[in-house]
Design a protein that fits this description.
The complex is a heterodimer of chains A (450) and B (523).
Chain A: E1 3-5, E2 7-16, E3 20-31, E4 34-40, E5 53-55, E6 59-67, H1 73-79, E7 84-90, E8 97-107, E9 111-115, E10 118-121, E11 129-132, E12 145-152, E13 156-166, E14 169-180, E15 185-196, E16 202-211, E17 239-241, E18 251-252, E19 255-259, E20 264-266, E21 270-292, E22 302-311, E23 325-332, E24 338-346, E25 354-376, E26 382-392, E27 398-404, E28 412-416, E29 421-422, E30 428-434, E31 438-448
Parallel strand pairs in A: 1-4, 2-16, 14-23, 21-27
Antiparallel strand pairs in A: 2-3, 3-13, 4-12, 5-13, 6-12, 7-8, 7-11, 8-9, 9-10, 14-15, 15-21, 16-19, 16-20, 17-25, 18-19, 21-22, 22-25, 23-24, 25-26, 26-31, 27-30, 28-31, 29-30
Chain B: E1 3-4, H1 13-18, E2 34-36, E3 42-48, E4 65-77, E5 80-86, E6 99-101, E7 107-113, H2 119-126, E8 130-136, E9 143-152, E10 159-162, E11 165-168, E12 176-179, E13 191-198, E14 202-225, E15 231-242, E16 248-257, E17 276-278, E18 293-295, H3 303-310, H4 315-320, E19 331-335, E20 338-342, E21 347-349, E22 353-366, E23 368-375, H5 379-382, E24 388-397, E25 411-419, E26 422-431, E27 439-457, E28 460-467, E29 473-479, E30 485-491, E31 495-497, E32 500-507, E33 511-521
Parallel strand pairs in B: 2-5, 3-16, 14-25, 23-29
Antiparallel strand pairs in B: 3-4, 4-14, 5-13, 6-14, 7-13, 8-9, 8-12, 9-10, 10-11, 14-15, 15-22, 16-20, 16-21, 17-18, 19-20, 23-24, 24-27, 25-26, 27-28, 28-33, 29-32, 30-33, 31-32
Classes of the chains: A mainly beta (450), B mainly beta (523).
């Protein structure tokens, strides 16, 4: 069957956030009429062959094949069994060459040759012997290759469109936030980071990024179920309030689309970044937060977390929906050079949301939570007295958001030195003012059933 | 507030999905003018600690901290589209953290190519391309060069075609090698390249900053106790290390104390390549020894191995050298909620180097030595019958009155004391991050001179503390009682620390102190 090679001339790639991409390309094929095999080179090395679809005018697809029989010396020899090869013996003393024709009888754990009427094992004596083959067997290739057998109604060149899904391409967002402490504002730049480990380069591709992942039910490489006993780690909530605003970005179903403005070449093993957001002077609020777990007593003061809170709304915030990624915070040092102060992961965030992100531990702001007294009131009820000592080694007063969790069920705060608000059934919250270079103490009694 | 959306052209979603036949851009990316950013003219390196280490010193073969590297480089751009390449960035670069400023709004994209030049990458790039096969006759040294094409490098075997036919590399037993026409843009190290669009030809400077792995630092303290045990001299070094293959000459160096959040996971893999493995067909059937010929063309070896060998732990030697010239101390400044220590003079942070710089020196800091033991619910039995050793603690308060009053970043402490005029190492310990006015407690380890034995009769406990020292000691017994239990009565009277009962007593020289208490639980 004649094999034609398809040349690609237009390529578009749609990349989802979950290591999946849709590749669509147009290729010129030369249809000879009748049955014909066409090989497509330069497709993703990780192509999912079952997702391939090829369409062109006036042809019908007979079959699609994905050949992953690779051309190696061992395969070459294996396929030569029963065939003639040329062997060239080199005399190690003189360098003289002797050419002979040989038939390969077997290649199992050693190559057995029939030369004339003799049977010999190739290079069993360790002397140099070159083996020369006439041709490469048809379906052995350097790379896995997609081939399609078509039945062309009429001969002539035409344009075919090929599409397939492949893993190995992914993207996420990376943000750079520069916090101005004096003004209480941040500048935020957003970059889309594209990675390609699919084993293939994509030249001059029109690229579209989708902030979401279509479910891959039962597809290879996906877990059928979550392994037993695995629980996602509990992460601090970053989204204060989910937004309700709509952006001007394109959508696909419920996913936002981020098209790259220009055609680009995505090389193999390349990390590529393209900017998508550049906002200046967004108000941001710096705060401190400490979460005390139920019945936790710390012998040493623990650092409170540094938090930054800002909005993604159009009128007083970033004014965009944010694809999931990592936000890195920077701050200028005394010489005016930006220095890194920590990073935080964000999820897909709608426009108009409030984000509260932790950058790390505050060196100078610490909290020591202790169970002061715990008494059993009766068979069912317990009374727990908590004492929280807050210290501030900074020369300015500040407010720490103190959280106590574990208050589920019919728990009650029977007395407290400062009024709390209940963030949820489980968590009480106090805003504790700590004086400059000073300390503050908060006490609270909890009536619980546990 | 000025909000501006940059550089996104909005395509219609349908058009983008359908992938219409758009005309290709006039210039192909391969033919863009390539500019190389010059060597950095100014470099700043800010080293951050391993965020998951709360105390103790760095380990040279496991540098889990990172650094922010900021460098200024001169660049020359042509009018139109350019590719600007930055070479000599740290190997541990996190490419997604790279920020380039000073060039204005002309960056189209930032790329980092992780495919590096290696023997196997050369062969892979040569598949389908012309190469020259060189055979050397081992007898007379005659070299035979034959042009050919590489057909495959699959699974480590190389198949090539010459005018004589198809052959496999290094299966004949003759010395054979391939030589290549060019390296196809492969470079020795991952490089960062920007695609830029400049309105005019321009010479300017760009500032590149990025985070890189493979750095770390910690404080190394030396505490020298005075002969009377009432005061100490406390000095500290900043020990910082660079495990990267890239060094930074005459850099402004800073270290940052405090824990910063890190979310970045694994770095994108770098295809480090390998030697050309010429896998052959099976040979030598009368022998079952597997044979695999390898031609090592100088593969890029793993850095870590070399690093372990190249670096020797410096801390012991440095610690003994307690006095430094005071002028070279690092200068402290506040950076948000972190502490930044600036090294005053430019310094070279060489590759695979650890470096020590003076952090602080304080003399005659008043200290107290306290012995103590904590007994939990199960520990009563532990101390019953066979005595347990109490621990010895060195305590002070981090205040100006105590000649301290400065933030103390976490690290490793070596405690020295004098014995007959000689300064001897007594104990190695750890310190966590300590803010102003915090209690400093250095664990000096268990003391065989002070032992604790407990006897229980029902809910009553009798605890004996024996002091074999020739001086009175201060002792603290801390209790962890079962949930809901409390002290009903005790001699001496029980105090409390961290919400738990604590007995403080002074025990005279060569005598035994006794604590008695009885517990009761709530209804």
């Amino acid at each position: 069957m004649p094999a034609a090679h398809a040349a690609d001339n237009s390529l578009s790639i749609t990349i989802y956030t979950d290591d999946l991409a849709l590749v669509q390309e147009r290729r010129d094929i030369d249809v000879k009429g009748g049955r014909q095999r066409i090989e497509f080179e330069g497709v993703s090395a990780q192509i999912r062959p079952e997702t391939v679809s090829l369409t062109a005018g006036d042809i019908s697809i007979v079959e699609q094949n994905f050949d992953f029989d690779l051309l190696t010396p061992a395969k070459l020899m294996e396929k030569a069994v029963g065939r003639e090869v040329t062997i060239v013996r080199i005399n190690p003393a003189t360098g003289a060459e002797t050419r002979e024709q040989a038939e390969v009888l077997a290649a199992n754990g050693g190559v057995v040759l029939k030369i004339g009427q003799r049977i010999e094992v190739l290079r069993d004596d360790g002397l140099p012997v070159r083996v020369i083959f006439d041709k490469v067997p048809d379906n052995l290739r350097a790379r896995p290759t997609l081939s399609v057998t078509i039945d062309g109604a009429r001969a002539g060149p035409r344009s075919a469109s090929l599409s397939y899904l492949t893993p190995g391409l992914g993207w996420k967002a990376d943000y750079v936030a520069l916090y101005d402490e004096a003004a209480g504002k941040i500048d935020v730049q957003g970059w889309i980071t594209l990675t390609n480990s699919s084993g293939t380069a994509y030249d001059n591709a029109q690229t579209l990024l989708v902030a979401g992942s279509p479910s891959q039910a039962g597809s290879p490489g996906q877990f059928g179920s979550v392994p037993n006993g695995w629980r996602p780690p509990i992460r601090r909530q970053t989204l204060g309030q989910a937004g309700t605003e709509s952006g001007s970005r394109e959508r696909l179903g419920d996913f936002y689309l981020y098209p790259l403005p220009e055609r680009t070449t995505i090389a193999n093993l390349q990390t590529k970044q393209v900017g998508f957001l550049d906002v200046h002077g967004v108000p941001a609020e710096h705060g401190y937060e400490y979460l005390s777990h139920w019945l936790a007593t710390s012998d040493q003061p623990q650092s409170a977390k540094s938090t930054y809170r800002f909005s993604t709304s159009a009128h007083a915030g970033l004014g965009d929906q944010l694809p999931a990624g990592i936000l890195r915070f920077y701050m200028r040092d005394r010489r005016g050079e930006p220095q890194f102060i920590g990073e935080s992961r964000i999820d897909h965030t709608p426009m108009g949301s409030t984000l509260s992100l932790v950058t790390g531990d505050a060196f100078d702001v610490k909290v020591k939570a202790t169970v002061d007294k715990r008494t059993r009131v009766n068979e069912r009820d317990w009374k727990t007295d908590m004492r929280y000592e807050l210290s501030n080694a900074l020369p300015r007063p500040l407010t720490v958001t103190l959280l106590q969790d574990g208050l589920w069920g019919d728990s009650r705060i029977s007395s407290e030195s400062q009024k709390s608000t209940r963030r949820s059934a489980d968590t009480a919250e106090w805003a504790v003012l700590v004086p400059a270079n000073g300390r503050a103490v908060l006490t609270a009694s909890f009536d619980t059933r546990f | 507030m000025s909000a501006r959306r940059s550089r996104w052209l909005v395509f219609s979603a349908g058009a983008a999905i359908a992938g219409p036949l758009l005309p290709l851009p006039a210039e192909s990316q391969g033919s863009l003018p390539a500019a190389l950013a010059e060597a950095p003219s100014a470099v700043s390196v800010t080293v951050y600690r391993d965020p998951y280490r709360a105390s103790g010193s760095i380990e040279l073969d496991r540098l889990n901290g990172f650094a922010l590297i900021t460098e200024t480089r001169a660049v020359h751009l042509q009018a139109g589209d350019n590719v600007l390449r930055f070479e000599g960035v740290a190997d541990g670069i996190e490419p997604e953290s790279a920020i380039v400023t000073g060039l204005g709004d002309i960056i189209l994209e930032k790329n980092r190519d992780a495919a590096v030049l290696s023997p196997s990458a050369l062969v892979a790039a040569a598949v389908g391309n012309p190469v020259v096969l060189t055979r050397t006759d081992p007898k007379n040294g005659r070299v035979q060069r034959m042009p050919g094409t590489v057909l495959s490098d699959a699974l480590g075997g190389v198949v090539f075609q010459t005018e004589q036919g198809i052959e496999a590399l290094r299966c004949s037993g003759l010395p054979e090698t391939l030589s290549f026409e060019d390296a196809e843009g492969l470079r020795a190290h991952p490089t960062l390249a920007l695609r830029l669009r400049s309105r005019r030809e321009v010479s300017t400077t760009a500032t590149l900053s990025y985070l890189a792995r493979g750095f770390d630092w910690a404080a190394d303290y030396t505490a020298t106790l005075s002969a009377d045990g009432r005061s100490m001299d406390l000095g500290a070094w900043i020990t910082l290390a660079n495990g990267n293959g890239t060094g930074f000459r005459e850099a402004h160096a800073q270290v940052v104390a405090g824990r910063v959040n890190r979310e970045s996971g694994e770095l994108e893999p770098v295809d480090i390549g390998g030697p050309v493995i010429a896998n052959c067909w099976p040979r030598g059937s009368t022998s079952d020894i597997p044979m695999q010929l390898q031609l090592d063309m100088g593969a890029a070896g793993l850095r870590q191995e070399g690093m372990k060998k190249a670096l020797a732990a410096p801390s012991a030697a440095a610690a003994l050298q307690a006095i430094a010239a005071p002028a070279e101390r690092a200068q402290l400044e506040q950076l948000g909620d972190l502490k930044l220590y600036r090294i005053q003079e430019p310094t070279t942070v060489a590759s695979l180097q650890s470096k020590q710089l003076r952090l602080m020196d304080r003399t005659a800091v008043p200290v107290a030595i306290v012995y103590g033991l904590e007994l939990g619910p199960g520990d009563d039995a532990r101390a019953a019958g066979s005595p347990v050793l109490a621990s010895r603690y060195l305590r002070t308060l981090n205040t100006p009155e105590n000649r301290l009053g400065i933030p103390l970043p976490s690290g490793h402490v070596q405690v020295f004391s004098y014995h007959e005029g000689r300064r001897l190492l007594e104990r190695e310990s750890k310190l966590r991050d300590l803010a102003l006015n915090e209690e400093v407690e250095i664990d000096l380890g268990p003391s065989p001179d002070v032992q604790v034995e407990s006897t229980s009769i029902g809910r009553a406990q009798r605890i004996e503390i024996s002091n074999a020292r020739a001086a009175p000691i201060a002792f603290e017994l801390r209790l962890r009682l079962p949930d809901g239990a409390r002290i009903a009565d005790a001699t001496p009277a029980a105090g409390s620390k961290n919400g738990r009962p604590m007995f403080s007593l002074s025990i005279p020289a060569h005598s035994i102190g006794v604590v008695r208490y009885r517990t009761s639980s709530s209804p």
